[in-house]
Amino acid sequence: MAINYDLVILGGGTGGYVAAIQAAQAGLKTAIVEKDKLGGTCLHKGCIPTKALLKSAAVFQQVKQAADFGVETTDPTFHLTAAMERKNQIIQSLYSGVKQLIPSNKIDLYTGYGRILGPSIFSPIAGSISVEYEGDKENDILVPKNVMIATGSVPSLLPNMEVDHQFITTSDDLIQMEQLPESIIIVGGGVIGLEWASFLHDVGVQVSIIEAQEQILPGFDQDVVKHMKQVLKKKGIQVVEQALLQEAKITDQVTVTYQHQNSQKQMTADKVLIAIGRKANTYKIGIENSDIELDDKGFVRVNQHYQTKEAHIYAIGDVIGGKQLAHVATYEARQAIAHITGSATSKLTENEIPACIYSNPEIAVIGLTEAEAKAQRIDYAVTKVSGLAIGKAHVNGDVHGFTKLIKDRKTNDLLGIHMVGDQVTELIGQASLAKYFDSSVQELSEVIYPHPSLNEIIGEAALAAEGRKLHG
Fold first, then answer.
1. Is the pTM of this model over 0.90?
2. Where along the chain do its domains lie?
3. Residue 263, strand partner residues
4. 79: annotated active-site residue
5. Which of these is catalytic: 227, 260, 451, 471?
6. Which top CATH class is 2-154+279-341?
């Protein structure tokens, strides 16, 4: 039986279900096709579970340092089973909430595998959706006016390192691990690699990082990279950059062979984590039945409205590449729905999108790096303020890190803010708001910041940029 819709969304992750809610609220008859659970990678395997585990590690570290605050404790012990149970409870609570959003917004949910069909008896153009179910249940055919691909991404793998999910793993495996290894080699020094390195080190695992590129945290500001490398070294985390992996051999441990500085070297650990990024999840969704194009990395090509080459088929989120972040997917969802419904909406650039790493210490950034400003031949100026200048940082017992502000000398516009330190992922929202409203550095310096608070560091950086430095 063919069922007509205004919009059918392939994938019920963060971008997919937000798009569905926005469409339904705009009066579109909407359906989601999801083969697994609503919430997708972010809720079940990525953002939420990793941050829950990082919070457990942070509490463990805080308790270990309780004597610094005048609190006497016995020697604390980290229990992975309890931390995993807490993580699961958080996921279940949020999952229950997401499931309620679908019927409450009168959205139809098909729990099956969605595949795009080519022109057929159901439609003269590609875009009908065949929903395939396990068992003997007959397929449903959905005939939408518009389709949205929101199938997300999966971990990228290495051709010379087969994942066995026990010794050689991905982040999907570690989310479910039942026992901590004594040692681990993390292949990849990007966002995913650093967050797992932070968690595992802080709960007692010996961690090493191997990065193929010139440095860890590719694309981040050099001052942030330099600071994080110093932190990792101080923690005892070995970092090897410009290392080309050759093979991995499994015995009772894993021995990795890699090329570094024109010589062959080896490293051994209980486990290996492959954290080299994520690739578009376009497997068997029927791309070949349409005129949709993929780029050279396998991501779906879209225009500024998130339309594919088939104008009635849209794509958002990780599947189109770019900044693979949950809040980016939700933004793209809103933009795509606005285009479908003809609604007016503001358009943001990549420079107005914040990015965070929830490691210890945290990293939060928005806007241009210093290298990018230089490459664009902008006449810029830089100021940096240490956490030592902030009273609340002393109160909290963590003065490490800094805030770096980059401004345009000619216009005094804020070009970028790069933050490293305690709770900076909570502070970057203020910088995001400033970027959205195209604030000048002067305006940022004249805002009244409550004292004592950590967000005073943004005001201190702005004052310093204005030549009115107080404490930094």
1. yes
2. 2-154+279-341, 157-276, 351-465
3. 260
4. no
5. 451
6. alpha beta
